[in-house]
Design brief:
240 residues, alpha+beta, 7-stranded antiparallel β-sheet, 6 helices, 14 strands, 28% helix, 35% strand, binds adenosine-5'-diphosphate, binds thymidine-5'-phosphate, binds aspartic acid
């Protein structure tokens, strides 16, 4: 039995369900086995996916908390659910790229696998109906989504996360190609929210460039759960 009582479904996203709790500042996030890509165009139920991503997210949020990054993570409630600080989410996907891949090479004349030094940070407007279009600072300010100061804060936090995660993965022979973050406000403070997992990063084996992330599912490159397990086996302290 969980010690956290959910008091209602707040939001059902494509991969996670978010519940209110008896504590007004805390939410219960349940990682489901739904796997989607291309804004939900592709959808499957993949056994154990929720648990693997929840474990990964717990690990990365704790790793970042050990540095100066402030995250919404409070604690695990079960192996597929966690208690988080309730945030007023800023509808932006902050993407950091060390290597050209994905939508960057579809939209611009970069070569697949080209190193990006310095890393590129871009912002997408989080809107399923509009297909998460890339957004500029001026549009962000004109829409009142965030202030210039908040945008600077999110960009520098994202670059700091990049340095921490890039070095961490490098030790396991893995290239952090790119990743997406979401932030939200609680009072005056901006927290790192949502998730960091194999769904939200591109990770390649350093030698073979084999994908160990959601691209395995997106592009039908093999057994996505095996890829997620391989990734966790390579980075997590032995869990027996
Ligand atoms: P999506 O909405 O993209 O389909 P998910 O299935 O991952 O995504 O749903 C999780 C939702 O919860 C997202 O909309 C995300 O912005 C939101 N969320 C993540 N962390 C928090 C938080 N700490 N407080 C409030 N909402 C959050
Ligand atoms: P992209 O190359 O498709 O723009 O993706 C960049 C990174 O962001 C990649 O690591 C996957 C992640 N991502 C998400 O987490 N959610 C999304 O909805 C999209 C489109 C990408
Ligand atoms: N997050 C989006 C989806 O789940 C897009 C993607 O990851 O490809 O549909």
């Amino acid at each position: 039995m969980s010690d956290v009582q959910s008091t209602g479904l707040l939001y059902e996203g494509k991969a996670k369900s978010v519940y209110t709790t008896e504590h007004p500042d805390e939410l219960l996030v349940v990682y489901r086995d739904d796997m989607t890509a291309f804004n939900g165009e592709k959808h499957d139920i993949v056994a154990n996916k929720g648990q693997l991503n929840a474990r990964a997210c717990e690990f990365f949020m704790c790793l970042l908390e050990e540095t100066a990054i402030i995250t919404h993570f409070l604690r695990m409630v079960s192996d597929t659910s966690m208690l988080v600080r309730k945030l007023d989410m800023i509808p932006l996907e902050v993407v950091v790229r060390n290597v050209a891949a994905g939508s960057l090479i579809n939209r611009y004349p970069f070569t697949d696998g080209q190193s990006l030094d310095p890393p590129i940070v871009t912002f997408d407007y989080k809107s399923d109906e509009r297909g998460d279009p890339m957004i500029t600072p001026d549009i962000i300010f004109a829409l009142g989504i965030a202030t210039a100061e908040e945008l600077d804060q999110m960009k520098s936090a994202a670059l700091q996360v990049n340095l921490i995660l890039r070095d961490f993965f490098d030790l396991s022979g893995i290239i952090l190609v790119d990743f997406k973050l979401e932030f939200g406000r609680a009072g005056e403070i901006i927290y790192l929210g949502d998730e960091i997992s194999m769904d939200s990063m591109r990770l390649w084996d350093k030698e073979t460039h084999e994908s160990l992330d959601k691209d395995v599912y997106r592009f039908g490159k093999g057994d996505v759960i095996q890829a997620y397990k391989t990734l966790l086996d390579r980075i997590l302290p032995s869990e027996g």
